[in-house]
Write a structure and sequence with these properties.
The complex is a heterodimer of chains A (289) and B (258). Chain A has 7 helices and 12 strands. With 289 residues, chain A is of the alpha/beta class. Chain B has 10 helices and 10 strands. In chain B, a hairpin with a 2-residue loop joins strand 1 and strand 2. The chains are: A alpha/beta (289), B alpha/beta (258).
């Protein structure tokens, strides 16, 4: 068994089997009611809240010995959070890891959805800091639950109204609220709204884990996910006006990177795997300049 | 006036532990009628208002509201969903302190537009136009539509709260001391505004107040409460000019002439 590679004294994937069963039950309920936040008994994990404890518990509950794990942080595989979580599961579960989106069966993510379209059989696990989209307008948990139960979502549009009134357009750029399966308003975690359209009818299973807030929610494969908007101010994603400096891509989400202390800056893909693949392909067939 | 009351309260009682706040109160409001509930502090006015506006479940009694479609709904037999839907469409609540009724972190326009968005309005331009129209109706400069309510004066906040409630065209509005805490000239303008709005819109209203002058100016009928019971009710001028119950006589005679 793969547990042989795990350090002595730890169960497969760190959490004990009872905890994993409890989390799996929460996940099943979440999948059965798309967008509904299921409370669960979040455990203490060996890293601080806010660093992905919710996502890690979900990953630990669904991962198996034959899975191949990819972890990204803001799209990149090589940032601190991604590296340490990937190493954590490599050590405690002994699973194979990868940086290739296409090869991964489970992708744990913080703040991005990979550029490469996901396929059936893949699981996307989001790390969620604030699961409740209504929190900004209603501080009481008892009240927000009632608002979800009774589909009282008028307040969500007040937030968008305020954006337009102040700036002339909807300026909410991340954590943009969505309506899942025509029923529950859901926070997509702080992904850029650029990624919102990818959630709609995605073939992969999307799981969301919030460790500090003790909530799990899910979007099953092929579920409609619509971004909230106004008739006369429809949802629109922002596009960069220049291509990626490394791969020349014009249809991906770009990060602005400061390259010197003279104010020099370049824009590069935030999805490091996708960018790398495009660069390789470009070297193989440098037809496009 | 039509033949059936808009709101019918029967045998409403509520107690906080062993302290009785309301005992067997019967009240009716007819379409287009303004009813004032007066009485001293601690007489059960606010408890009564909370129970009949659907915000606090009474210990006993029924509160039957006749909805727009003619159906009679007992607010406390109905489901949460039905009661809350009525509360944000056909009913309205104006709080004594505008901070309780407004979202202070949301602009004036957003405050007025919220009830529209809550019932499914999804056109920004239309929502904003309606909000501007209502600000004008409550005499707030339309140029301040994007300002936060906390930058408004007390009287403006109260008028904004009224606009926020009336924008969804409710049929029955509950007002809890709407002029409390305002200076007299601002009070006079607010009363004037309330009177013209209720007349223009054919609005029914229940006003809780301890200010008999407010009751005289706005109300068609008055209910006098004391110790959780209605001791006297009748037409405003009859109650105020010819009070029958000793307590009402005391109340009327204790108003200081200016």
């Amino acid at each position: 068994m793969t547990t042989a590679t795990a350090p002595a004294g730890y169960n497969f994937a760190y959490l004990d089997e009872g905890t994993k069963r409890m989390i799996r039950r929460a996940i099943l309920k979440a999948i059965a009611i798309p967008g509904y936040q299921v409370p669960f008994g979040s455990r203490e994990m060996p890293l601080a809240y806010g660093w992905g404890t919710g996502g890690m518990q979900v990953t630990a509950a669904v991962i198996g010995a034959s899975d191949r794990l990819k972890v990204i942080d803001q799209g990149a595989d090589d940032t601190t959070n991604a590296v340490s979580i990937r190493r954590f599961f490599a050590r405690t579960a002994g699973v194979a890891t990868t940086e290739r989106t296409a090869e991964a069966t489970i992708i744990q993510t913080r703040h991005r959805i990979p550029e490469r379209p996901l396929r059936e059989g893949q699981v996307l696990v989001y790390q969620v800091p604030m699961p409740e989209p209504l929190r900004f307008i209603e501080p009481r948990e008892s009240e927000t639950r009632k608002m979800h139960a009774l589909v009282e979502y008028g307040a969500m549009h007040v937030r968008l109204y305020e954006d337009i009134a102040a700036h002339g357009r909807i300026t909410t750029a991340y954590g943009y609220p969505v309506l899942v399966n025509g029923r529950y308003v859901m926070s997509p975690s702080p992904i850029p709204k650029f990624d919102n359209p990818k959630m709609d009818m995605m073939p992969a299973l999307q799981l969301f884990g919030a460790g500090r807030e003790k909530r799990i929610y899910a979007v099953p494969p092929y579920t409609p996910v619509r971004s909230l908007d106004f008739d006369d101010h429809p949802f629109a994603i922002e596009r960069s006006d220049q291509p990626c400096a490394l791969c020349g891509s014009t249809d991906t989400y770009l990060d602005e990177v400061v390259v010197d202390d003279q104010g020099g800056r370049v824009f590069v893909c935030s999805d490091s795997d996708h960018c790398g693949e495009r660069q390789e392909a470009g070297r193989a067939a440098p037809a496009r300049a | 006036m039509t033949e059936a009351p808009l709101l019918r309260v029967r045998g409403l009682s509520h107690a906080y532990g062993s302290r009785i706040a309301c005992s067997a109160v019967d009240v009716e409001v007819w379409p287009g009628e303004v009813l004032a509930i007066v009485g001293e502090s601690g007489s059960g006015k606010s408890t009564l208002l909370n129970c009949i506006s659907g915000r606090m479940r009474p210990g006993a009694g029924e509160v039957v509201y006749r909805a727009k479609d003619g159906r009679e709904v007992d607010l406390w037999q109905a489901s949460d969903a039905q009661r809350r839907l009525l509360a944000r469409t056909e009913l309205g609540m104006v709080h004594q302190n505008p901070r309780d009724g407004l979202r202070l972190g949301v602009s004036a326009g957003g405050n007025v537009g919220e009830r529209l968005m809550a019932v499914g309005a999804r056109n920004y331009g239309a929502i904003r136009a309606t909000a501007a129209e209502w600000l004008a109706r409550v005499e707030i400069d339309v140029g301040r539509i994007d300002d936060l309510p906390r930058t408004f004066s007390g009287g403006m906040q109260q008028r904004l709260q009224i606009a926020r409630v009336l924008v969804s065209r409710p049929r029955l509005v509950f007002l809890d001391e709407p002029t409390g805490g305002l200076d007299v000239s601002v009070q006079a303008r607010l009363l004037d505004l309330l009177r013209s709005l209720s007349r223009d819109l054919g609005l029914a209203a229940i006003i809780v107040t301890h200010d008999l002058a407010v009751a005289r100016l706005l109300a068609h009928r008055i209910c006098v409460m004391r110790g959780g019971e209605v001791v006297e009710d009748g037409l405003t001028d009859r109650v105020l000019d010819d009070p029958r119950h000793p307590y009402t006589q005391l109340l009327v005679s204790s108003v200081l002439p200016p």
